[in-house]
């Protein structure tokens, strides 16, 4: 059982998934908040039933799954709706993630959480790792990847903690503005550090 937890975070488009996958290639279990967030709103789950009761059936796709883009629209336009949704889902997500960390078999486990600091989830981990890039690169990568407008990306970045705030809170920082080969070296160095920390904790 992995008892040492690293919280991996980074803004949209920063490359935290790439970093997480390199750790996974080194044999480390990943517990991904985005995946868990989907699991807690599967059809017939308590999470989805509560969302339908609140927003009505307009929030469902024809196959009974959650219409994410519709939900995103509703909560980005209205802060109170966003708060309501967070209050519902965060405890469910937190509980599920901790359970998955407990069941992990690797020497340490990586919890991948986009809003690690914003949602106070850094309190659940032993150490935090931030994947950092400039806001300009963040915008460019996200627009290229998700086919969204620059304004939409700016809104998302604006709803997250500032770069300075995240940098001040993170224990470790990976600068992801270079080549993938450089990134792999950085991850390998941190992997060695984390193995050491986990074995001595």
Could you explain the architecture of this structure?
By secondary structure, this protein is of the alpha/beta class. It folds into 2 domains: 1-28 and 107-201, Rossmann fold (3-Layer(aba) Sandwich), CATH 3.40.50; 33-105, P-loop containing nucleotide triphosphate hydrolases (Rossmann fold, 3-Layer(aba) Sandwich). It contains 9 helices and 5 strands. It has helices spanning 16-25, 33-39, 46-55, 68-77, 79-103, 135-146, 150-159, 163-169, 180-199, and strands spanning 5-9, 29-32, 109-112, 127-132, 172-175. Strands 2-3-1-4-5 form a 5-stranded parallel β-sheet, sandwiched between helices. It is globular. The mean pLDDT is 92.
In brief:
The protein has 201 residues and is α/β, with parallel strands linked by helices.
Shape: globular
SSE string, helix = H, strand = E?
A: EHEHHHHEEHHHEH
- First and last CA, distance: 13 Å
Kindly estimate the percentage of residues that lie in beta strands according to DSSP.
5-15%
Strand order of the largest sheet: 2-3-1-4-5
Number of domains: 2
Given as residue ranges, the uncertain stretches (5+ residues, pLDDT < 50) are none
| CATH homologous superfamily (4th level) name of the largest domain | P-loop containing nucleotide triphosphate hydrolases
* Radius of gyration over C-alpha positions, nearest whole angstrom: 18 Å
What is the average per-residue confidence, as pLDDT, rounded to a whole number?
A: 92
Task: Examine the coordinates and then state which fold CATH places here, giving the name of the CATH topology of the largest domain.
Answer: Rossmann fold
Text of the CATH class of the largest domain: Alpha Beta
CATH architecture descriptor text of the largest domain: 3-Layer(aba) Sandwich
Q: How much helical structure, as a percent, in the residues? A: 55-70%
Secondary structural class: alpha/beta
Q: In DSSP terms, counting alpha (H) and pi (I) runs of 4 or more, how many helices?
A: 9
Describe the main β-sheet briefly.
5 strands, parallel
Instruction: Find the count of extended strands (DSSP E, 2+ residues).
Output: 5
């Amino acid at each position: 059982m992995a008892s040492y937890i690293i919280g991996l975070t980074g803004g949209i488009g920063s490359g935290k998934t790439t970093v997480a996958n390199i750790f996974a290639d080194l044999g480390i279990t990943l517990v991904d908040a985005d995946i868990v967030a989907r699991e807690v709103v599967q059809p017939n789950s308590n999470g989805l039933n509560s969302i339908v009761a609140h927003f009505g059936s307009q929030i469902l796709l024809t196959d009974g799954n959650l219409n994410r883009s519709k939900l995103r629209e509703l909560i980005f336009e209205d802060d109170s709706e966003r708060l309501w949704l967070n209050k519902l889902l965060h405890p469910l997500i937190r509980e599920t993630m901790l359970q998955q960390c407990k069941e992990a078999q690797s020497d340490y486990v990586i919890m991948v959480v986009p809003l690690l600091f914003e949602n106070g989830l850094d309190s659940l981990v032993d150490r935090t790792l931030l994947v950092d890039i400039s806001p300009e690169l963040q915008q460019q990568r996200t627009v290229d990847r998700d086919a969204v407008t620059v304004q939409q990306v700016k809104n998302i970045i604006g709803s997250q903690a500032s770069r300075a705030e995240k940098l001040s809170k993170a224990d470790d920082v990976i600068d992801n503005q270079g080549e993938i080969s450089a990134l792999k070296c950085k991850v390998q160095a941190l992997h060695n550090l984390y193995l050491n920390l986990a074995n001595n904790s």
